[in-house]
Queue: 3 jobs
Job 1
Amino acid sequence: MKMLITPSILSADLSHLQNEIDSVASADWLQVDVMDGHFVPNLSFGAPVLKTIKTTLPLDVHLMVSNPADRIAEFAALGVKNITFHAEAVPETKARKALIQAIHAAKATAGIALNPETPVSAIDDVIADIDLVLIMSVHPGFGGQKFIPSVLDKVRAIRKKFPNLMIQIDGGIDPKTAVLAREAGANNLVAGSAIFKTLDRSAAMKALRS
Ligand code: DX5
């Protein structure tokens, strides 16, 4: 299974965002961390910022927000590739299924994210409907945090049951933890500081791939 490398622009120099995005042109996807200051303590950016950037990379929107259903239309209008919402923000099955349908209607793939403390069983009701599971290996809200290795058990458990599902892992991913994530069965690595806090971004992404 091809390993996708997905730089997270939260860790980029936001005062030169277009240049930063140009510097990761060899990535597979580009992740936009949308934070509302309510579901997570941090406040980041949304569709108005995304509208200003030019890239041919597929856009991966990670909604760390309490009301993800309200955000789908604006990202659909931008033709994003994937939209991921948090299981913790949408506990009811009916609402989850409606949200997944809305994301699919927006011609995007649908992802569901699990915080480190949330068990895989929390998404038993929709795992057959989604296109991607995002396993958070840090507590969401900030870049530059330390990888939480215990989440690898969740990657292994999902990979064992769903050999073809895209499993994305996000938080503290660097060349060392990328090996652990790959061995556990992840096939999409999100990295912020390991890429944007280095000078040679292509080399940083190559180091994650190898
Ligand atoms: C954290 C974000 C992550 C973060 C990754 O809430 O979802 O994408 O930006 O940054 P690093 O790779 O530095 O942990």
Job 2
Amino acid sequence: MIKSLSDNIFQFFKYEQTLNNNNLKRNDMKKTLLSICILTLAFSACTNNKKTVELFPERNFDTIVDSKKVAIYTIKNANGMAAQFTNYGARLVDLWVPDKNGKLKDVVWGFENIKGYLNANDLYAGPIVGRFGNRIGKGQFTVDGKSYQLTLNNNGNHLHGGTNGFYKKVWDARSFKNEKGEDALELSYLSPAGEEGYPGNLKIKVIYAITANNELTINYEATTDASTIINPTSHVYFNLHGTTAQSSNSHILTIFADKYTPTDSLLIPTGEIVTVENTPLDFRKPTAVGERIKTDFMALKYGKGYDHNFVLNKKAGEMSLAAEVYEPATGIVMKVSTDQPALQFYSGNFMDGKDTGKRGDVHNYRTGIALEAQNYPDAPNHANFPTAVLKPGETYKQSSIYAFEVKK
Ligand code: GAL
């Protein structure tokens, strides 16, 4: 643009000279030149504008972590829905979906480059967490009569797979077209026996794909060579405004769950499974996230905001709709389906504005929500919770879908 402006000025002086030389009508020529300038400016503005709406600006993810190559990968569909991932932590970096005006919005937290992730204060922006997502009390569990001690990284408990969980690992990546012709990305990782205290060499594979119906599908598979426990989940912070400049408290949320699992003050389940009725956790009818967060929360024993495991209304293993989120300002609707028994809804209570992400978005208090399809937290320590045990010869499988629509 600067170049074209200076070219214009240069041209102007050249023409001035010609004018003097040829005695042409000065005013007419000036008018013509002015029009050329305006046209050039308008043209440059358009070209630049194209640049600003370009989905993926240059993002530097090329680095080596743990002697493995880190990179960025893109998948998309014909409607323009697109996503970027990095194999560092099997993370979703961008997710572009249409809003009610047909404009693409990036609805997830993330950083511009790999440095952002390596230096982040909040470690859980977009990765696959595990081996066990959420908490295990005191990091202890017993499988096949043998007790194990996991690393303790959260107030004396184990959280999201520990200090060096899946979210910090460099996964092997392979882009391909799946059997439906969709763009897909396979990420695989071999977690060696003893990693973070877990038994068994665990092979895990996660496949992300984008369907023609604007769905981000996440399929997991894992096997082990010794009895172990497993509960991986996708830990994405969504903001359907497409920016953290606006709070996610305005999102209208429905969760298809009659029950939840109460916790102690350190967010470890007590083992009870109780009704959501007459609590601010009753999201069976669409309700704004922020509506009851301040007032009614005192009624819950340990409430700083939503950070609860909702027990989904379904038969074991059934794929069903777990939650719906709608943001009136953008018209974006996200529907979460899963075959998992539960969903953790986290309203961003620990978000503190210390991180600045893509496009200068500050990751402030309650500027994103997480809806994590999962087994119940601390499941290995409660006989009444679904089992999280994986044995040799078995294959762990999980399917979750984040589908996008608009409401006008
Ligand atoms: C959530 C968890 C919260 C918090 C958050 C990460 O999955 O439920 O308690 O740990 O991750 O800050």
Job 3
Amino acid sequence: MTFPNSVRIVDVGPRDGLQNEPADVSTVNRVELIHKLQDAGLKSIEAGSFTSPRWVPKMADTGEVMDRIKRRNDVSYPVLVPNIKGLEAALAADAREIAVFAAASETFSQKNINCSIAESIGRFMPVVTRAISEGIKVRGYISCVLGCPYEGDVSITNVRRISSTLFDMGCYEISLGDTIGTGTPEKSVQMVDAVSEVVPVPNIAVHFHDTYGQALANIYATLQLGVSVIDASVAGLGGCPYAKGATGNVATEDVLYMLEGMNIETGIDFSKLLSASAFISDIVGRPPQSRAANALLKKQLG
Ligand code: HMG
Ligand code: MG
């Protein structure tokens, strides 16, 4: 067992979470959420996406969000970019980190970005090359690494191949997305093990949605492989517009509670994170989708 000493949590709530919340969240409140997350010590906060507003209307104000964030030098605010048009918008917004997003299943790729996996790789190539030439860091996502809502099982060989392609293209980090949350610890370990043959473990991130309640167990299992970057969403916000029934990402509060129990450093202040969680939960009109947050908030109320 080689647990890491420290973990970087990437809070994807303002993008992955809010892109799929039924409630309308104003630009001002999305920015306030990002500020609260950075106050809590998060160093990577996914701020939005430069995608087609017809496909993902909730992220249409990402340019304005980027404009209003009081940026800190030690915090990264990645934005999703599917093509050159998105990159141009990201450059105009002075984004310093972007993420391209592929899928391990053909049908999901078609439903999500309207092209095959091979076509998406062809599209990302000039995006990544240009971004890197402008000094912008690029993250590479792969969706459906442990199951697809349309095709069911997904081949680990496919996940490994796409990971290798994105990493060789210049993505500094490969985020492995269990989009519909069907993965279990054994499968997660097999998948991450396979990817680690082509991407060094420090460059691998795990991105679990918690639909089947497996996310924390999967994270614990992959931490044992040395994985040290975990995507999570404050208050467990969100889901996925192209994966019916998928719940949000694992809640940042639940991940933090577990990591604190393992003495793994994150740099995050739990009480400030709780304040971010309470703030956004109030706005979306439901309690946090986090057991730890609910227990601790209840305790605070006495
Ligand atoms: P398309 O319809 O094939 O694109 O969509 P197109 O190039 O034919 O353009 C159609 C229209 O969109 C045109 O406008 C373009 O200008 C516009 P019109 O002339 O008709 O008025 N357009 C854009 N507008 C703004 N920004 C852009 C852009 N590109 C084209 N970048 C496209 C293809 C990729 C654009 C579309 O499918 C799309 O935007 N998809 C985004 C889907 C998405 O964001 N999904 C959620 C993120 S993935 C995720 O959540 C999973 C993840 O969390 C990991 C996990 O959980 O597993 C990452
Ligand atoms: Mg996701």
